[in-house]
Every structure is written in structure tokens, then in C-alpha cells.
Amino acid sequence: MLRLSKLEEDILDKLWLLEKAFPKVLITYLSKPVPPYNTVLSSIRKLEKLGYVGFKKYGKSHEYFPILKKEEYGKTLFKKLYNLMGSSNEALLSYFMKEEKIDIDELERMIKKMKKASKNNKL
Hints:
This protein has 123 residues and is mostly helical. It folds into two domains: 6-66, Orthogonal Bundle (Arc Repressor Mutant, subunit A), CATH 1.10.10.10; 85-119, no CATH class. 61% of the residues lie in helices and 10% in strands. It contains six helices and two strands; from the N terminus they run αααββααα. The protein has a two-stranded antiparallel sheet.
């Protein structure tokens, strides 16, 4: 999976939220500052060529929808991060604790929750 630009990720994120949209509607949801219309269209077309986005044609208009599932994209990003951390559980956990300012008490609560979910086969 290719690394997407910030705009491409924003477009995908909004399509996951909206489920389908015409470009002019999609643009109203994009993060500010919104790039020019043609730039947005080029990014949508790139996502379409990658197979992440599909469209339904209405005359000259195209209504776009996501093909790539948000969960699948998230898994891919997580795997890349995990590999960047040397495939080390300890390094990954340490990174999140430092960067997300997770303290030991919060970590212990999360562990208890995961143990409980695991017992209930929810993990």
C-alpha cells in the first residue's frame, strides 16, 4: 500500500464518513485550507487508480465512494509503524506511552480491560 498524501487521507476520511459524495460536496468537508478544485479531483482520481475509491457516473458527474475499508487502511498503517519500531512490542508501547502521555495507572486500567475482554472472547 502506498503512502498517501495528507489531502488523499483527508479525502478518504471524509468518504468513509459520508459513504459517498460528489466532489463539490466532498470539498465542503475537507480540512482548511481547501486546495483548488482541480487538485482535489486529481487526488480523487489517484485514489481511484489505486483502487481505494470507486465512482458511479451520472451524466458528466461522478459520485465517489470508498472501496478501501477504514479498518484495512488502519491495519496497514499500524503494521508500518510496528515495523518502524523494529517489530518490538516494548518499543511500540513505550512510544505510545511517551507520545500519548499514557501513565502507568492508565496502562494498568487498559490491561485489566483487555484481560476482561479476552475472558469474554471479545478481543
